């Protein structure tokens, strides 16, 4: 059998004036490789290039042998692909096995728009696995899945024998199933032959070393600049001395001692000028070395949260049936409540019902649904562009603190899912919300943003209603749990 692999050769890609991949080369072989990078770095774009949906602006992307099947499981769960329908109605052994394993009933497909994102994700995954491709591209497959769903996913990935590329911000998942990591950063890629955590340690160590070199180079630059300044001063004073000497010489013409001094002064001046040139050259070299050293600018460290107390004591008071179960929910203005439960248990339905009973005006709520549609994200962008200048500035500051370049966001036509969620969070925080209703807020977010969000939520003085499958986050930022 011919060997199976994927090769990118000097590959570049740009959306209009926004370059995303710049002359990258890599080689992927069978097994799982994690594709990691910040939100908006271009991970989905790279997968779409591999699928042939987008064409490189330069270079090549090849899958060998020719004709090998490439399939992907999309990041978004809005659309129902033909693949999913074909998989639902297939009755071969593999299809039946996958239906059973992922708890999928073909009849439920008819109500696709009302299926929960977790249920839609299972359908997408099933369809991708059922097609038994040689190359499988998974874009955030773990989003929306509950603990059991994640376990099934891990099992299925471990059985796959082709070339697999998986985008995920879930460290545990990456460490368990991948053997290599392709890191996408600032338009370039680098392939590490290690799973995520080990690879990350290596690149952090490299960055720390690079930071140390940068500090050292800066120290040298300062020293050299001081030396340059000193030799300039010496040069200037010897020039002054010589011209004063020349004026004197007119009066004592023919004085041999004075002529000797003149020659010595000229020699000294030449030497000073040479030193000044040499030091200047060194300063230039050090400056150039500094500009080549890449040290990450950790965009904004903390999320700014100013808070004015909400005038009402109880922000939500709800009692009623949620999917045929009686639920009572009360949320006081400074309380943080975690709503937990497996996929399909009605967490999102409960949030919706709670919001309908919310006593806080809409402009003081931060509502982050489990999945933002493309239209919703574009509407948020319009809201941002239309904000008064100072408010827009505040929101953009928060966007930056979450790791998105404000300029990119203002210019993009289609924000990536991670960018869109960060924008929604920033819009709410920038308006000093009294209540935050967050449904799986970490979905699509990159790791630094998850960490920043976690510490911001822990300190958030307002009311919080949080739905998350991430037990670590849930217990870290809430004080009470409602298990459905
Ligand atoms: N059609 C488009 N025109 C212009 N810019 C676009 C377009 N589609 C995407 N972008 C921008 O390209 C960048 C990369 O998008 P992409 O979806 O590949 O990011 P990503 O790494 O997958 O992000 P995430 O982690 O949020 O999924 C983003 O900044 C996005 O705003
Ligand atoms: Mg993406």
Describe it.
This protein has 484 residues and is α/β, with parallel strands linked by helices. It folds into three domains: 5-194, Rossmann fold (3-Layer(aba) Sandwich); 205-292; 314-483, P-loop containing nucleotide triphosphate hydrolases (Rossmann fold), CATH 3.40.50.300. It contains 15 helices and 16 strands. It has helices spanning 43-51, 82-89, 93-101, 117-130, 147-159, 171-177, 196-251, 256-292, 347-356, 374-386, 389-401, 406-411, 417-430, 447-459, 471-477, and strands at residues 5-15, 18-28, 31-36, 58-64, 70-73, 135-139, 163-167, 180-185, 188-192, 314-322, 325-332, 336-340, 365-368, 435-439, 463-467, 480-483. The chain has a six-stranded mixed sheet, with helices on both faces. Helix 14 (447-459) links the parallel strand 14 and strand 15. Helix 2 (82-89) crosses helix 4 and helix 11 (389-401) packs across helix 13. The two termini are 51 Å apart. Residues 294-301 have low confidence and may be disordered.
Strand order of the largest sheet: 5-6-7-3-8-9
How is the biggest beta sheet arranged? 6 strands, mixed
Please give the alpha-carbon distance between the first and last residues: 51 Å
Q: What is the CATH superfamily classification of the largest domain?
A: P-loop containing nucleotide triphosphate hydrolases
CATH second-level architecture of the largest domain: 3-Layer(aba) Sandwich
* Number of helical stretches of at least 4 residues: 15
Arithmetic mean of pLDDT: 87
Range of strand content: 15-25%
- Bound ligands, named by name, code or SMILES: adenosine-5'-triphosphate, magnesium ion
- Give the helix level as a range of percent: 40-55%
Q: How many beta-strand runs?
A: 16
- At the third CATH level, what is the topology name of the largest domain? Rossmann fold
CA-based shape: globular
């Amino acid at each position: 059998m011919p060997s199976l692999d994927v090769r990118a050769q000097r590959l570049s890609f740009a959306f209009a004036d926004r370059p995303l991949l710049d002359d990258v080369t890599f080689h992927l072989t069978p097994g799982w490789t994690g594709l990691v990078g910040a939100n908006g770095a271009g991970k989905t774009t790279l997968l779409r290039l591999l699928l042939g949906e987008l064409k490189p602006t330069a270079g090549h992307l090849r899958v060998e042998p020719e004709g090998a099947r490439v399939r992907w499981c999309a990041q978004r769960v809005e659309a129902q692909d033909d693949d999913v329908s074909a998989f639902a109605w297939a009755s071969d052994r593999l299809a039946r096995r996958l239906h059973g394993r992922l708890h999928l009933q073909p009849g439920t497909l008819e109500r696709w728009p009302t299926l929960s994102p977790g249920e839609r994700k299972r359908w997408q995954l099933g369809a991708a696995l059922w097609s038994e491709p040689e190359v499988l591209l998974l874009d955030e497959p773990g989003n929306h899945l509950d603990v059991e769903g994640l376990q099934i996913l891990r099992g299925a990935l471990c059985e796959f024998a082709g070339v697999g590329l998986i985008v995920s911000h879930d460290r545990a998942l990456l460490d368990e199933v991948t053997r290599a990591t392709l890191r996408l950063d600032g338009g370039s890629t680098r392939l590490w032959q290690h799973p995520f955590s080990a690879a990350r340690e290596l690149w952090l160590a490299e960055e720390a070393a690079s930071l140390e070199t940068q500090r050292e180079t800066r120290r040298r630059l300062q020293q050299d600049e001081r030396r340059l300044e000193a030799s300039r001063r010496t040069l200037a004073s010897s020039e002054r001395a010589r011209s004063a000497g020349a004026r004197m010489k007119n009066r004592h013409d023919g004085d041999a001692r004075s002529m000797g001094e003149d020659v010595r002064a000229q020699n000294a001046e030449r030497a000073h000028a040479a030193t000044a040139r040499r030091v200047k050259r060194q300063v230039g070299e050090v400056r150039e070395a500094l500009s080549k050293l890449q040290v990450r600018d950790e965009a904004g460290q903390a999320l700014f949260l100013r808070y004015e107390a909400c005038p009402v004591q109880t922000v939500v008071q709800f009692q009623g049936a949620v999917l045929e179960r009686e639920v009572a929910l009360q949320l006081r203005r400074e309380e943080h409540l975690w709503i937990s439960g497996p996929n399909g248990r009605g967490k999102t339905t409960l949030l919706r019902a709670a919001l309908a009973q919310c006593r806080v005006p809409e402009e003081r709520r931060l509502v982050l649904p489990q999945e933002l549609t493309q239209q919703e994200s574009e509407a948020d962008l319009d809201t941002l562009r239309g904000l008064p200048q100072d408010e827009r500035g505040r929101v953009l500051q928060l966007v930056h603190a979450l790791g998105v370049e404000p300029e990119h966001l203002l210019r993009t036509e289609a924000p990536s899912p991670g960018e869109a969620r960060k924008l929604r969070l920033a819009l709410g925080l920038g308006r000093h919300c009294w209540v935050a209703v967050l449904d799986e807020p970490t979905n699509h977010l990159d790791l630094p943003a998850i960490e920043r969000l976690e510490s911001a939520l822990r300190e958030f003085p307002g009311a919080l209603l949080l739905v998350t499958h991430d037990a670590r986050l849930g217990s870290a930022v809430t004080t009470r749990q409602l298990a459905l």
